[in-house]
Amino acid sequence: MSSRAVSLHASARSASPSQSMPPGPAARRVFVERIKQLAEGAAPLAAGGDARAVAAARQLASLAASAGKGFDLTPAAPAAAAAAAPRPAAGPATPAAAPASTVSGGVETVQGEWLELQFEARRCIHSRFCVTGAPQVFLANVKGPWIHPDAMPVERLVEVAHACPSGAIRYRRKDGAPEEPVPPVNLAGVREAGPYAFRGQLEIDGAPAGFRATLCRCGASTTKPFCDGSHREIGFTATGEPPSGKTDMLPTRDGVLAIDPQPNGPLRVRGNLEIMSGTGRVVARVTSAYLCRCGGSANKPFCDGTHSKIGFKSA
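Given the sequence above, the corresponding structure tokens read:
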């Protein structure tokens, strides 16, 4: 079996229940995405003609097709939450009256009956989980009010918010139900030709930053340390499948994750962290690291000092 096949096999087995997202549509979307990525990664192996690789590629392609067509992404609301307070079964696609909305510090806050939705434009990477998972709440390409929190059941809406990788969409419950849970494992996903996707109790530059963030690693973002999609415009080609290094299990896997962007340098990360490839394979488990954000390191995702040689500017 080739080294690439071994890598694919290992990535399929590496995720454990404790690394999973909370049950619900968000977790199921990630599952569908991972199956699709495995199928795409297996296709080049099949081109070599090896019978086992061809069979595996066909099976993965079939699983990806089945998951994409038939996976139920809309479960019933949890019984405990449903019993907490009566809620409307569903709302109209476009509420008659625009909900109350304010903008402060670049964050748009929209008031609903059951929760408050927040949208921070500079963090958005247009992953489209909002406009595809809750199209009646987040109205794409419209003039005027575009966020309508009461247009779908609140339990389904918070799952859509959890799926937002950048943390651009956040919420505050107004019905007494629990707020977004702290991730049980701190994770940093290395996206193919794209940003780092962090999940954890984040502090960026010493300030609380929620539980989700996508941070630039191509060096071109105009909203550093956050990703703004510039990696597509500059043709950034860094792999999302770096080789695995030290992966010994950490005694503790959660806790505050401090991310301090160094002036004209890398991201200094302190705290328990599992770095994952784009397909979920463990790349490294660390408690301190310097991650490249100039786009030039030969040892990605880690810094190798190239930022100094190429004159990287963080501002």
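Residues 1-20, 75-85, 88-95 have pLDDT under 50 and may be disordered. Try to locate this feature in the token string yourself.
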